[in-house]
């Protein structure tokens, strides 16, 4: 494994360097050619590494933007949910205020239905971390409003005839949902 000087062109030739030497698998490759090829390969590796780093940076920014968007969407959804519950409370306050004085017919759309029946008990109890006693009291408050017999005793005279059956079905569904939620929390 030595260097020979090629008499014809005066270039050093690397002999027998094998797979890891200047010439790789080629015999008789000039030192300058091997060095130029090694430099080109290094430059190519650096270019690929730079591209890969740029891709990783781009993916990282994309993931950050996605996480920010998801947080914004979650905040908007929570704000929307809070608005729906606020409208629900306000509508019930109006209905309670009008219940004795008004004789205006009550339509299905006039009844303030809970935005999410599954969340009604938790919300009335003060959240998922409510104590058993708080949940029990909230259940009783909700049943006073949503039990079909109680609801009909209070609003039957005002229900429009064409909406009455639909209103009763929905009231029964809300009451059943409350009972299921209470039973699940008690166990």
UniProtKB/TrEMBL annotation:
Q: Which GO terms describe its cellular component?
A: nucleus
The residue ranges flagged as biased composition, category Basic and acidic residues, are: 32-76
Name the Gene3D superfamilies for this protein: DnaJ domain (1.10.287.110)
Q: What is its main location?
A: nucleus
Q: Which keywords accompany this UniProt record?
A: ANK repeat, Nucleus, Phosphoprotein, Repeat
Read off the InterPro entries from this record. J_dom_sf, NFKBIL1
Q: Where is this region: Disordered?
A: 1-84
- Tell where it localizes: Nucleus
- Gly residues biased stretches: 18-27
Phosphoprotein: is it a keyword of this entry?
A: yes
The processes (GO biological process) annotated in the record are:
negative regulation of canonical NF-kappaB signal transduction
**Keyword presence, Signal:** no
Name used for this protein in its record: J domain-containing protein
Organism of origin is Ostreococcus lucimarinus (strain CCE9901)
